[in-house]
Amino acid sequence: MSALDRVHNIDDFRALAKRRLPWPVFDYIDGAADDELTRRRNRRAYDDCDLVPRVLAGVADIDMSVTLFGRQLAMPLFLSPTALQRLFHWQGERAVARAAAKFGTMAGLSSLATVSIADFAALSDAPKMFQLYVHKDEGLNRAMVDAAKEARMDVIALTVDTIVGGNRERCLRSGFTSPPRLTPSSMLSYAIKPRWTLDYLLRERFSLPNLEAYVAAGSSVPASVADYFTTMLDQSLDWKRAESIAKYWGGHFCLKGVMAVEDARRAIDIGASAIMVSNHGGRQLDGSRAPFDALSEIVDAVGDKIDVICDGGITRASHILKALSVGAKACSGGRLYLYALAAAGEAGVTRALHLLHAELVRDMKLMGARTIADLNRDNLRWR
Predict the structure, then answer these.
(1) Which CA distances in Å does 139 have to 92, 111, 135, 156?
(2) If both were cysteines, with which of 5, 103, 266, 361 could 1 make a disulfide (CB 3.0 to 4.6 Å apart)?
(3) CB contact at 8 A, 342 and 81
(4) For the chain, which domains are there?
(5) 332 bridge partner residues
(6) Dihedral sign from CA coordinates of 248, 250, 256, 259
(7) 280 is known as an active-site residue
């Protein structure tokens, strides 16, 4: 029996990733800001809400497709854009995009990706999101948006919760940087993970191709992600600038990192077609609310005018069904597939999506829901 045959949920993938990665790299995926209160809260929020199933609903056939950004997704979960994926497994974003395409869902690409926008877009015909970090260098910002246009990405998601980098203390302790920099405390960790180390050294050269023509930090000059955000991103980013980016892009536009009703309303005013209710996995402002806790008031305020996506803390299909029942159009997550990528590359991400897809089918049948439209707040009770 292979290691993947013994993996049955996202927590199993986390344990396998921890065994296979050097500890600074694992802690980068797993860690969050300050006391990591929000990171824990993101998942626990779902525990305070119970599902109320209906019976005798005739659920032999299930349709869990949703339409998002003008594209049909075969399941109501997509893979959020995350940075530096080549550090977690040598297959990186290519593995994630190919696995998502197998399940008819969307994958996202970060500005800090280890493949180019063009190469990512060419991997499949499945829907794709590009996540834009607004840098101080306007030439870089325009180049990335132009590349996304040329590649016909389906949507740009402007990340709005990284005006400065969060205080990620695990990374401070380990000295994690992009690209990795050996320190006395981390050297042993890399040495005792020779498979990871050899893949990193002998396979495709690590780079951030969407940035490296403009920015050395993070690609050829080691930098922590928190320092990168704080020094390289434009802290003057405001609503007027976001609106101008949306107009220049001219396609489906999403704000990633909205947690307040007032901001959700303003997203509509600047022409956004969706918002991602997200706190960046607890990696930015510790002590902030969980996306699921904020979801109902945001859906009530704007859900009839803009698509609302719940991003964060999802490890089970039941979490997805709870968010959809509140009124989210779809859900997304990052760690849930990064653990799988780190554990086994494309095979790992494929296995993770297979497990979540099977859970969704089973749980929808157990809920008595034949389509996503059958889910609503009548089948929820809060403790």
Answers:
(1) 27, 14, 9, 17
(2) 5
(3) no
(4) 4-382 (3.20.20.70)
(5) 78, 311
(6) positive
(7) yes
Q: At which residue do the structure tokens 């049909």 appear?
A: 72
pLDDT digits (tens, 9 = 90+) for 166-187: 999 999 999 899 998 877 777 8
Tokens at 290, concatenated: 């969980």
Distance of CA 223 to the CA centre of its chain: 21
Contact 370, 61 (CB under 8 A): yes
Distance CA 349, CA 109 (A): 15
Catalytic choice (89, 135, 252, 280): 280
Asked if 27 and 338 touch (Cβ cutoff 8 Å), the reply is no
Q: Are strands 274-277 and 307-311 parallel, antiparallel or unpaired?
A: parallel
Confidence at residue 221, expressed as pLDDT on a 0 to 100 scale? 85
* Average pLDDT of the residues in 37-48: 97
Q: Can you give the pLDDT at residue 245?
A: 98
Q: Write down how long the chain is.
A: 383
The pTM assigned to this predicted structure is: 0.96
Over residues 48-59, the pLDDT tens digits come to: 999 999 999 999
CA-CA distances (angstroms) from residue 114 to 29, 54, 80, 234? 16, 45, 15, 22
CB within 8 A of 94, min separation 6: which ones?
115, 119, 120, 123, 346
